[in-house]
Amino acid sequence: MAPARLAGHGSRLIAVRAMVSVGVYGEGGRGPGGPPTFETPSIPPQFSLPGAKLPEKYVDFEQQNARFPLADRVHLACKPLADWRGLRKALWGISFCSSLLWCYGGLYEINLDRRKLKTPGGKLFTVPNEALAIAVATEWDAQRDTLKFYTMHLSTLCNTALDNPTQRNKDQMITAALKFLETDTVCYRVDEPNALVELQKNEWDPVLHWMEKRYDVTIGSSSSILGPEIPNATKDTFRQHLTSYNFWSLTGLEYVITQLKSVVLSMGMIDRHLTVEQAVLLSRLEEEYQIGFWGNVEWAHDYDMYELRARTAAGALFVHLASESSTVKRKLMQD
């Protein structure tokens, strides 16, 4: 259940609870999901008895609820006006967005205060499955006084997949991803200093060997500026593997690869051999070595690390959620 949200009505304030629900549209009307349901916050016990009169400091908009269609009906609650005084600026400034989740035709859409969300390109914002829709709705629910789009990585990836601004197909995306293999971070080694050479060997080699064993390929490493020679058989193996990804998953995978600058680390994380923290640390290995030698600048180095973790984690989550699928079947009722 999502956290409580606020919605404005005229010059008054209305408390709305958890407007995240699923309605499935199928042949002949709504499917087993039925109309959306909403949870109503409870009225204080002392005012819930039959005939009890609410004091003026409480606002009751239950009667106005009837003006909404049955499927969109939002049950409103009573709330002390004093509770909202500190939130008026947020409410009348950007206001909180309550995320509504619907499903029809196999696609899910996100509604903000019962308004349809659209992409920057003007398309209706729809996602292919419920898991990803809930994740995006949660991302919107986390917004407070202002909309911080730079923190909404899942929404950004969905917009990219829907609008496809570069107008690429799957083959072109796979080719772009595989180009990073030729300049992979873990394949480029240094000759000096010896401490860094040893660090790269100890930290990167186990991941590289796992990758070669996992996909039965040869990658190798080199200290040459030209990098290692990647066999065509290795590229063909990875191309065949990436072909099994759908367009949305490839969008997320390419995003992760561009963040880590490494196909090896990205695939290791997607295959759950590495955690997000481990993958980010390995991608920053040389930088971490320099920090250990020269010292850490908290406002710069720490921010970069946490921001990279957030983007990488969002990309990995997007890949898994975009690959998720589920099927609901009705049971035949027998007399």
TrEMBL record:
<keyword id="KW-0143">Chaperone</keyword>
<protein>
    <submittedName>
        <fullName>ATP synthase mitochondrial F1 complex assembly factor 2</fullName>
    </submittedName>
</protein>
<dbReference type="GO" id="GO:0005739">
    <property type="term" value="C:mitochondrion"/>
</dbReference>
<dbReference type="InterPro" id="IPR023335">
    <property type="entry name" value="ATP12_ortho_dom_sf"/>
</dbReference>
<dbReference type="Pfam" id="PF07542">
    <property type="entry name" value="ATP12"/>
</dbReference>
<dbReference type="GO" id="GO:0033615">
    <property type="term" value="P:mitochondrial proton-transporting ATP synthase complex assembly"/>
</dbReference>
<keyword id="KW-0496">Mitochondrion</keyword>
<dbReference type="InterPro" id="IPR011419">
    <property type="entry name" value="ATP12_ATP_synth-F1-assembly"/>
</dbReference>
<dbReference type="InterPro" id="IPR042272">
    <property type="entry name" value="ATP12_ATP_synth-F1-assembly_N"/>
</dbReference>
<keyword id="KW-0809">Transit peptide</keyword>
<comment type="similarity">
    <text>Belongs to the ATP12 family.</text>
</comment>
